[in-house]
Design a protein that fits this description.
about 160 residues, alpha+beta, five-stranded antiparallel β-sheet, 5 helices, elongated
Length: about 160
């Protein structure tokens, strides 16, 4: 009579343990499926690179995103040069120095971080840059609709950050 209860309890514990295992299992993307930009900067000294597969922008859109964070001044200088980031004017630099996290957005051709994409380019990267956090996010879009939604998303972040402080 005790045997069926013991088996039932063991099965329940295995199911719970299996569920916890699945939830806690790291969700990694194979290196070959990551963006070209991520593969270039992964493991580079001075830069922390991350690749997010299917990042949710809103309820209807998710895109792949490469995030590059400079770990030190050397890494930030590398990113600024590689991505052709502009030199900021003194007013903007003072705002950033006072702690305002302004997000600068640019539309770049896929595979060319410095060249501006044409208005009708469907596959391109929307680059959002935080000089305060020394971070570059590349949203890898595949259509004009995705591009427009990501542009609005980045603009909303910039506006919300500029209202803080």
């Amino acid at each position: 009579m005790k045997r069926p209860w013991i088996i039932t309890i063991i099965i329940c514990l295995l199911l719970i343990g299996g569920g916890i295992f699945v939830i806690r299992w790291p969700r990694t993307v194979p290196f070959g499926q990551c963006s070209e930009v991520y593969r270039k900067y992964a493991g580079m000294e001075g830069v922390k690179a991350s690749f997010v597969k299917d990042f949710y922008i809103n309820d209807t859109l998710c895109v792949d995103v490469t995030v590059l964070v400079a770990a030190d001044t050397s890494g930030w200088n590398t990113l600024k040069n590689d991505f052709c980031l502009p030199v900021l004017d003194s007013v903007t630099q003072r705002k950033i120095d006072s702690g305002k996290d302004l997000v600068f957005m640019a539309i770049r051709k896929k595979g060319n971080c410095c060249e501006t994409a044409d208005l009708d380019d469907t596959e391109c990267d929307v680059r959002a840059t935080s000089f305060l956090n020394r971070t570059i996010c590349l949203f890898h879009v595949k259509s004009l609709k995705e591009r427009s939604i990501v542009e609005h998303y980045s603009l909303d972040i910039s506006i919300n950050n500029s209202k803080k402080k």
